[in-house]
From TrEMBL:
InterPro entries xrefs: LigK_PcmE, RraA/RraA-like, RraA/RraA-like_sf
Protein name (record): Putative 4-hydroxy-4-methyl-2-oxoglutarate aldolase
Binding site for substrate: 97-100, 119
Family membership noted in the UniProt record: Belongs to the LigK/PcmE family. Belongs to the class II aldolase/RraA-like family.
Subunit (UniProt): Homotrimer. Homohexamer.
CDD domains membership: RraA_family
The enzyme's E.C. designation: 4.1.1.112, 4.1.3.17
The reaction(s) this protein catalyses: 4-hydroxy-4-methyl-2-oxoglutarate = 2 pyruvate; oxaloacetate + H(+) = pyruvate + CO2
């Protein structure tokens, strides 16, 4: 457990070209390309339809009902970063809203992922500032207790280190370790190319039973067709 009250100013972010490459792919593709790893729990949802993001993580450890460290984190944000916030214990209070979004956007942030609540959803939609949260909740927070910034955090069961790549869309949120970003982007590209070939075969009417050579294994297990 990392001590509270720590802000790491120096973060080794994933390679920018690798981040750009990963931004071309959806969460499901990235998750599969990485060996089916890195997904956050599915209760983390976009707060408005069409929200999506890809960027490098500035991590935040929050205390329940207290958003002070989000303001501290804003100073550490660089162009293309995503603020990724976990909490020391479960909390669905509205840690984040339009004012903080305005502040983060001015710093170049690509969005927010938070294992907590968010509010001002209509304003966020108008701004097109992507937020993925565990709840939408108008309940406000205080600024009274220290957390930390740019330490490893667990967010919705996923470990996030500062500088990791975070990809989020309508299917969920996936975290790619910074050191694997280029490798995973290449694997995702290969996967998409292979899927396009399968997609065309499905369009042509071929069945998954034949495309994936399923008939033999099904017969071996005793699948029987009756007329």
């Amino acid at each position: 457990m990392h001590p509270l009250g720590i802000v790491h100013r120096t973060v080794e972010r994933a390679d920018r070209a690798a981040v750009e490459a990963l931004s071309a792919f959806g969460v499901a593709t990235v998750h599969e390309a990485m060996g089916r790893l890195g997904l956050m729990r599915p209760y983390i949802r976009p707060v408005y339809e069409g929200a999506r993001l890809c960027g490098t993580a500035v991590t935040v450890l929050l205390q329940p009902g207290d958003n002070w460290m989000l303001h501290v984190a804003a100073e550490q944000v660089r162009e293309g970063d995503v603020v990724v916030a976990g909490c020391t214990t479960e909390s669905e209070d509205g840690f984040f809203g339009e004012l903080l979004a305005t502040s983060l956007r001015a710093r170049g942030a690509a969005g927010l992922v938070i294992d907590g609540g968010c509010r001002d959803v209509d304003d966020l939609r108008r701004m097109d500032f992507p937020v993925f949260s565990r709840a939408v909740n108008a309940k406000g927070t205080v600024k009274a207790t220290l957390g930390s910034v740019n330490v490893p955090v667990v967010v919705a069961n996923a470990l996030v280190n500062p500088g990791d790549v975070v990809v989020a869309d309508a299917d969920g949120v996936v975290v790619v370790p910074a050191a694997r970003a280029a490798e995973v982007a290449e694997a995702a590209a290969r996967r998409e190319a292979a899927e396009e070939g399968k997609r065309q075969r499905f369009r042509d009417g071929e069945l998954g039973l034949d495309l994936y050579a399923m008939r033999g294994p099904l017969a071996e297990l005793g699948l029987t067709y009756l007329d």
